[in-house]
Structures are given as structure tokens and as C-alpha cells.
Amino acid sequence: MIEKLKEIINDSDNIVFFGGAGVSTESGIKDFRSKDGLYNMKYKYPPEEILSHTFFMNNTEEFYKFYKDKMNSLNIKPNISHKYLKELEDNHKLKAIITQNIDGLHQKAGSKNVLELHGSIYNNKCMKCGKQYDADYIFNSDNIPLCKCGGIIKPEVVLYEEGLDDKVVNETIKYIENAEVLIVAGTSLTVYPASSFIRYFKGKCLIIINNDKTDYDYIADIVIHDKLGNIFKQI
Ligand code: ZN
């Protein structure tokens, strides 16, 4: 399988990578959807509830306690997978990285063309005047981060109940539709609508690399159940 994968990557200059939480776990970021994720924790509410639009609006202080505690990846470093993908981009083989992660680790590794379906902790905006703030400002603020105008600052990450950004969605579909090779990794492909994008692929080779089985394994040309880092290490 590894040999085959190597060959496919070597032969293509039109690869698109679609990644989920599993890409970042080897950097030490926990997937809160996994069973050893954030569930066993000190918060009164499940993560899905805290990370929802309603919760943000109604319990902003509690939201930020959780957010600053669990989503702060400012000091976390890219791992071998991020670095490998950066190399592929440098070698003009990789056209785009599409990620469900909000940690900005692909950019930290140096990747340029990264589409962040769920936004990024690095973008934050005042809900009143629209002024932008960096992540340091958010994570270093006491309680609720406030704008100079007095408005509440909201991270530009897609919370539950919120829709994806149209522009990012359209770009994502365009890249997947035009890709020759699509590598889907570190995602169980259960989070709608992100998972449905795979259906737009009509290229030569669909590769799925994930620890556990996914609902799309049956349509893939190559399926590997392992950690992404283990695979990229061997290529
Ligand atoms: Zn403001």
C-alpha cells in the first residue's frame, strides 16, 4: 500500500489534501469528538453545546473559559504531516489543503494555499464595529475579550448552528472537482456538510487515510487505517 501511495504521489502534480482533526492530534491537539477527547472534563456542558452559536450568545463568559482553555494552540508546533504537505506544495504537486481544523498549523508549517472550512483561531472580529483582532489578544484577555468600542469580539470559527463561508465552500468544491488525486486524512467524514464534499471528486485516485473506518472507504481507491504521520514518515 505504501509503495502504491508513493507512486501515485510521485506521478501527480495535481493533488488536493482534505484533512480533519487527526492531522493535528500528533501535535498534541485533542479531537473533542473522539472518546478520549475533551469529554472527561470539568465543564458542565458537552463541547458541542459550548461551541454552539446559541451558547456563545447566551453564555459568552462560559464559552470563553472553555475556548481559552481548550482551543489555544498558539504554542503548538506543526508535526510531520503538516511539514510533508508543505514540501508537496513547494514541489508544485499539491494544489490546496482543505482543513476542518482551526489551529492554523498548516500555515505555521509554511503552507500557502490553505482553505479553512471551519475558520481559524487567528481571525477574530468585533461584533459591533468589525475591527479585527489577533489570537494573542483573545487568549490573553481577562474573561470576555472586548473591542476598544466596547463590543464583544467573536472568533471567526464556525460554531455549531452556523453555516460555512460561501467563498471557502466554493473554492473547496472547485479544487476537489479539478483534482487528479484527493487525499482525505484524519477525518471520520461524519461531520456534515464537510464530508459531502468528497462526492465532488471525479479524478483518478481517492485515498483515505484514517485510524478508524469511514463511511466513504468503499468508494476509495486506496484505504489505509493508520495514523497519517506513520504513513507520511514512510514516504
Ligand atoms: Zn468594536
Account of the 3D structure:
The protein is of the alpha/beta class. The protein has a domain at 1-29 and 78-118 and 164-235: TPP-binding domain (Rossmann fold), CATH 3.40.50. The chain has ten helices and nine strands. The chain has helices at 2-11, 22-25, 47-50, 53-58, 60-70, 80-90, 105-109, 135-139, 166-178, 228-234, and strands at residues 15-19, 94-99, 114-116, 119-126, 132-133, 153-157, 181-185, 205-209, 222-224. The strands form two sheets. A six-stranded parallel beta sheet has the order 3-2-1-7-8-9, with helices on both faces. It has a three-stranded antiparallel beta sheet with strand order 5-4-6. Strand 2 (94-99), helix 7 (105-109) and strand 3 form a beta-alpha-beta unit. The protein is elongated, with a radius of gyration of 18 Å. The mean pLDDT is 93. Zinc ion is lined by residues 126, 128-129, 131, 147, 149, 151. Zinc ion (ZN) binds at residues 126, 128-129, 131, 147, 149, 151.
Question: What's the total count of β strands?
Answer: 9
Uncertain regions: pLDDT < 50 for 5+ in a row?
none
According to CATH, the fold-level topology of the domain at 1-29 and 78-118 and 164-235 is: Rossmann fold
Q: Summarize the helix and strand pattern as letters.
A: HEHHHHHEHEEEHEHEEEH
Shape: elongated
Summarize the main sheet: 6 strands, parallel
CATH homologous superfamily descriptor of the domain at 1-29 and 78-118 and 164-235:
TPP-binding domain
Write down the overall mean pLDDT.
Answer: 93
N- to C-terminal separation? 11 Å
Q: How much helicity do the residues have? A: 25-40%
Question: What ligands can be seen in this structure?
Answer: zinc ion
Largest beta sheet: strand ordering: 3-2-1-7-8-9
- Alpha carbon gyration radius: 18 Å
Instruction: Write down the oligomeric state.
Output: single chain
Q: Which architecture name of the domain at 1-29 and 78-118 and 164-235 does CATH use?
A: 3-Layer(aba) Sandwich
